[in-house]
Amino acid sequence: MGSFDSLSYLTQSEAAEVDESLMGPLGFSVDQLMELAGLSVATSIAEVYKPSEYSRVLTFCGPGNNGGDGLVAARHLHHFGYKPLVCYPKRTQKPLYAGLVTQLEALSIPFLSVEDLPSDLSNDFDVLVDAMFGFSFHGSPRPPFDDLIHRFVSIHNHNQTGQKRSVIVSIDIPSGWHVEEGDVDGTGIKPDMLVSLTAPKLCAKKFIGPHHFLGGRFVPPVIAEKYNLVLPPYPGTSMCVRIGKPPQIDISAMRENYISPEFLEEEAEADPINQFHKWFGDALAVGLKEPNAMALSTVGKDGKPSSRMVLLKGVDKNEFVWYTNYESQKARELSENPYASLLFHWDGLNRQVRVEGYVQKVSDEESEQYFHSRPRGSQIGAIVSKQSTVVPGRHVLHQKYKELEQKYADGSLIPKPKNWGGYRLTPHAFEFWQGQKSRLHDRLRYSPCEINEQKVWKVERLAP
Ligand SMILES: Cc1cc2nc3c(=O)[nH]c(=O)nc-3n(C[C@H](O)[C@H](O)[C@H](O)COP(=O)(O)O)c2cc1C
């Protein structure tokens, strides 16, 4: 998320100059910029309005570049799982635009004429995308766009009666707004989301809706330097970044409807360790970040539980191994009560796994071996940190780290501190949870039992 106070805003002429530079000396074509702009709009919409709730998206495209961005966004939204429709009343006959229309037709995306529009747009559509006019527009909108703008305005006013209404997303400039002054007389479109492209235009300062995003991840440093652009970094590989303050969220209203394959008794492995490996493999295969992160809960002699994250470092001889400081809070609690619970949450797969059992220290040789396999920085860090004790400030840790870094700069062996090592948990219970629609989740519990003097795992389904 960007910093909101120091953002740069472009005037209309600066915005035009930036586009000219991009498409002149900087070698971009209009097709490329339109593709990236439309993709940014689609990804911004997908960040906020999930297709499970907001699938019906009607995009209103004007005759210029802004309309082209809308056509591209509609195509990407289709591929993201939405059901887009397009209203494109004044088609531009240039090959670029004709191509975009052909691409949408090939995806069977319906085109609605203005006459076909239902009288109450909110009844039929979850999202209305305003791609009518961009930053180069001057003057007053002409028919049919003047009337369409009125319809957008009345949808917003309608909301004040408390009924469900479509949300409005404007691309770069809310249509009808002055590029620099904004909604001059206060009677214009009041979008819920504004997706500024390349850099926000001056009018964006007047945007008061809950979701302001920036898209157009193609600004080269020469442009940023020339126009003193202060723009937030895009996270990871994202095509968009939130630049407005995030809205106040009603936590009680936050919920996901999980959609996952069923997890049936017939599919469950007889041995829960094999089941764990199977699901861990799935978590790796879909690229989840740190699937080996697990919450470890312990309870000391005072009977008060405490939890923290640790990293699983192996499932060895059917036991779950992690490493830590033997003088930390968790270590003290484990010395008082050697039972613990581990919890894995694999969000992207709608899964959690609970593992409960008895905990012992791993052998000193094993801890020694693992300690020396870690990066030297982590080895020094383990010596520096008297985990869970009070420190007067960061500087104390850094000072000590620096001293040790110098001491071992010759590459000599860094000795493992005595108070650092591993634990292994021998499981006596597992539960595999798979999120499902309407809270009817799958929960399969494994508990040990004996059949014909043979130790086996009993699998039972628990109510969600
Ligand atoms: C994702 C993640 C992984 C962590 N892994 C470990 C770990 O493997 N070992 C460890 O001692 N602390 C780890 N920590 C830090 C612990 O959560 C915790 O702050 C620390 O162990 C002190 O806990 P305690 O005071 O309850 O003993 C991790 C934290 C996070 C967020």
TrEMBL record:
NCBIfam families: pdxH (TIGR00558), PRK05679.1 (NF004231), yjeF_nterm (TIGR00197). Its cofactor is K(+); FMN. Gene3D superfamilies: Electron Transport, Fmn-binding Protein, Chain A, YjeF N-terminal domain. Belongs to the NnrE/AIBP family. GO terms for biological process: pyridoxine biosynthetic process. Catalyzes the epimerization of the S- and R-forms of NAD(P)HX, a damaged form of NAD(P)H that is a result of enzymatic or heat-dependent hydration. This is a prerequisite for the S-specific NAD(P)H-hydrate dehydratase to allow the repair of both epimers of NAD(P)HX. InterPro entries: Pyridox_Oxase (IPR000659), Pyridox_Oxase_CS (IPR019740), Pyridox_Oxase_N (IPR011576), Pyridoxamine_oxidase_dimer_C (IPR019576), Split_barrel_FMN-bd (IPR012349), YjeF_N_dom (IPR004443), YjeF_N_dom_sf (IPR036652). Homodimer. K(+) binds at residues 66, 130, 175. Residues 15-251 form the YjeF N-terminal domain. Its EC number is 5.1.99.6. Transmembrane segments: none annotated. Keywords: Flavoprotein, FMN, Isomerase, Metal-binding, NAD, Nucleotide-binding, Oxidoreductase, Potassium, Pyridoxine biosynthesis. It comes from Lupinus albus (White lupine). (6S)-NADPHX binds at residues 65-69, 134-140, 172. GO terms for molecular function: FMN binding; metal ion binding; NAD(P)HX epimerase activity; pyridoxamine phosphate oxidase activity. This is NAD(P)H-hydrate epimerase. Pfam families: PNP_phzG_C, PNPOx_N, YjeF_N. It catalyses: (6R)-NADPHX = (6S)-NADPHX; (6R)-NADHX = (6S)-NADHX. Pathway: Cofactor metabolism; pyridoxal 5'-phosphate salvage; pyridoxal 5'-phosphate from pyridoxine 5'-phosphate: step 1/1; Cofactor metabolism; pyridoxal 5'-phosphate salvage; pyridoxal 5'-phosphate from pyridoxamine 5'-phosphate: step 1/1. Binds 1 potassium ion per subunit.
